[in-house]
What does this fold into?
Amino acid sequence: MVGLSLGEKHFIQGGIAQDLRSDARKRLTYRPIYVETGVIPQANGSAAVKMGATEVIASVKAELGKPTSLHPDKGKVAIFVDCSPTAAPAFEGRGGEELSAELSTSLQQCLLGGKSGAGAGIDLSSLSVVEGKICWDLYIDCLVVSTDGNLLDALGAAIKAALSNTGIPRVQVAAGATGDEQPEVDISDEEFLQFDTSGVPVIITLTQVGKHYIVDATAEEESQMSSAISVSVNRHGRICGMTKRGGAGLDPSVILDMISVAKFVSEQLIIKLDSEISAAEAREEE
Amino acid sequence: MRGLQISLNQTQKIRFDRALEKLESLSSKSNSNAAVTVADSIPVNFEDGVLKGHGTSERDGEIVATLCGVVERVNKLVYVRTLRARYKPETGDIIVGRVIEVAPKRWRLEINYSQDAVLMLSSMNLPDGIQRRRTAVDELNMRSIFEENDVICAEVRGFQHDGNLQLQARSQKYGKLERGQLLTIPPYLVKRRKQHFHHLEKYGIDLVLGCNGFIWVGEHVEAKDNMVEDQMSKSEQQSSVSSLNEQEHNYIPLETRQSICRTANAVRVLSVLGFNISVEVITQTVELSSSLNIDIHDMLGAEFYVLVAEAEADRRSLLTKKK
It folds into this structure.
């Protein structure tokens, strides 16, 4: 990230204070979002999302596995993020590992809820095939191709789009399996079940610069932030997860205010994302 | 165009393709014999004594292009110049750069070139305006003139014998650029003109088109007289630590900011579409957007891209008709 001169920083802060950012967005306006689905044909589902200059790709692969003994009726989902060196010179070699780990943890917290599996945005019970014995494991891998701020929102949108593009193969379980035996399964190559993504939340990141919050910060605006809160909100306006970044401490009333702003913004973002995802799938079919 | 990732609906796509076709048909009439792609053979008049430059190679006795670009001939040298090449500085170019290092007696600037440019302390006017020899005290006070990450406008003085690029900023119009935003566009879109500093009086903003692809759009700043500046800078230093409230009063007025954002978005749209950037095109685009009452943020939407492409096609067809 190139540094900014004092004059430029002043310009950015003034813009946010006057509700007219560098590209004339309002504080709560997102950059144009462009979604492309089916970019990785070998995966069960994939999507590429572009928010301004930020570009991420998400892919979903489904494999059969054994559910954990704590939750025999639920499948498993693992989310990994990889920051590609093409995004920034700092990501070369092991430089991007810290950011990748932080993004993976944040995504897991926002989409999968806590360790007990409670409050997960993704419905894990729908991934169960045979209770206690077989379940689907979803491996969601994300790649950051180019970064211009607001990675978490773009990754959340990409995961939502990839999941709506995911087809889980139909599984025929051989009847008559007893006790501890592994039942035989026949994975169909033809029939696919679309994953139900109506409950998948979107992630909204609110960045605080000076006295105001902005949504969808560019890299320049993020360099001026004092703190940021990422909230994942689902279609019904319920909060599925939250992360706070940044060194400045926040008053609890400020956090509650930011959450209500995030809830307000999420309504428009969900509508926008859904229309973009359906437009992308229509384009893919052409 | 590379990477036009805007979702256009059906009618917009048709209009856009039609505008692009019109532009292509207008441009292909001229210079068609100069453009080559890989493995095209380059016609040369004299087979003996021709120097093969960059982007060419010899194959079966004739000269063949290895790059896509335009053929340039200089005496006996024949080479292929690519269109999207890195910025190539020439003496007298006006460029906008960012200070990345304060070194002994010089500043190093990043100017979107393969190396960093050097601005010597002696090529810069001192704050008190007196022409004198730079002393050690001047050297220690270099940071009070330019610091790291400052955006500076300067002129290319030339290349040193060791290959370094030297800049000079002696005139009043060069110097630090504050109160605005810096945009980066591909350098080949900025053609060399007589004037690169533009003061758009109607909007009250300064527009600096750097030949290296850095464009500065900011609030208009009067070129200050050095004597007056010395007295003012003393009083500024006393109140340099300003509280948040004072800073708020210093923010750029909303109308000027709107003009800055409108111009910046016009430059962004033109650079994505790959049109040459010049003051006339920028002002026309800004006037187009304000005459159609397009919200500044909507200038980055699909509809405006199509409108700009159509306007450019009309403009160029008018130019060719005049010829």
Q: What stands out?
A: The first strand of chain B starts at residue 35 and ends at 36.
